[in-house]
Amino acid sequence: MDSLTKKPRLATVWLGGCSGCHMSFLDLDERLFELHRRAEICASPFTDYKDFPEVDITLVEGAVTTAEQLEEIRHVRRRTKILVSFGDCAVTGNVTAMRNFFSVDDVLDRAYRETATQIVGIPSGNPAVPRLLDRVRPVHEVVKVDYFLQGCAPSAEEIYRLLMDLLDGRTPALAGRKFGS
Ligand code: SF4
Question: Quick check: CB of 154 below 6 Å from ligand 1?
Answer without folding.
Answer: no
